[in-house]
Write a structure and sequence with these properties.
The chain has helices spanning 11-19, 62-72, 162-166, 169-182, 197-206; strands spanning 25-30, 39-44, 54-59, 79-84, 95-108, 122-125, 131-137, 140-149, 153-160, 187-193, 208-222, 230-233. It is α+β, with helices and mostly antiparallel strands. The protein has 2 domains: 11-104 and 216-233, Aminopeptidase (3-Layer(aba) Sandwich), CATH 3.40.630; 110-206, Gcn5-related N-acetyltransferase (GNAT) (Aminopeptidase). The two termini are 18 Å apart.
Length: 235
């Protein structure tokens, strides 16, 4: 099977290929021998950026990744991209990456989780209908919500100002969201940038553990020709 929907390494690609709104996704398959699918790439419209589509390649080889990108991405247009850190160099000579951020994917170990109680906590709802928890006060702000979810797993996020982090508000909102999601028996992921030490501290305190998955998030612009070994897929 090409994808493991429960795997940390495959989680992001699984969501965008199989669960994201199909009217907002283009899927391209890589067929090196014209018959067997050995990789794919999705281009998705997301709330991350309304003007730059998100590119998620899933390919195990340099050639596969390059051919997928050259076939699916329009020269001159700006995109966002997530790809494994070790595959960043695969795009040398094919595309330009800028604004590079490296993040670590953490997975919750529920055995190490303890809820964080805060009387300032408010439960809200995101525009997409997912739960969102916030603390807003004159002394700081923090919020936690869901980046994506499937029937098996979800990736959550937290944001806040410097005071919110210092006062523990970010940990409180994350804890409230985790508590609710554990009732749904979902595997919970959290993405933390390499240099965000405060978020690492909060995550480890709440029971998150490293998965070993590190990914690049960057601006992408292509400067290559279309490959013949890639087909657009119907979703």
């Amino acid at each position: 099977m090409l994808l493991d929907v429960r795997s940390a390494a495959d989680a992001l690609a699984s969501y965008y290929a199989l669960f994201h709104d199909c009217s907002r996704v283009q899927l391209y398959g890589y067929y090196p021998n014209a018959e067997n699918l050995s990789g794919f790439l999705t281009i998705a419209q997301t709330g991350i950026d309304l003007f730059r589509p998100l590119v998620i390649p899933f390919a195990g080889t340099r050639q596969g990744l390059q051919e997928l990108v050259k076939a699916a991405v329009l020269p001159g247009r700006r995109y966002l991209v997530y790809l494994p850190v070790e595959q960043q160099e695969y795009l040398i000579g094919v595309a330009d990456l800028s604004g590079i951020q490296v993040s670590n994917l953490l997975r919750l170990d529920a055995r190490g989780f303890e809820p964080v109680i805060n009387v300032l906590l408010e439960r809200r709802q995101s525009p997409g209908g997912n739960p969102r928890f916030e603390i807003r006060s004159k002394d700081g702000f923090a919020a936690a919500g869901i980046n994506w979810r499937t029937e098996f797993a979800a990736e959550i996020y937290a944001e806040g100002d410097a005071i919110g982090y210092r006062r523990g508000f970010t940990k409180s909102v994350l804890g409230a969201l985790i508590h609710q999601m554990l009732q749904e028996k979902l595997t919970i992921f959290l993405r933390v940038p390499d240099d965000d030490y405060r978020s690492f501290e909060d995550a480890f305190d709440l029971g998150f553990k490293p998965t070993g998955v590190r990914q690049v998030f960057a601006d992408l612009q292509i400067h290559a020709e279309i490959s013949p070994d890639v087909k657009s897929e119907d979703l």
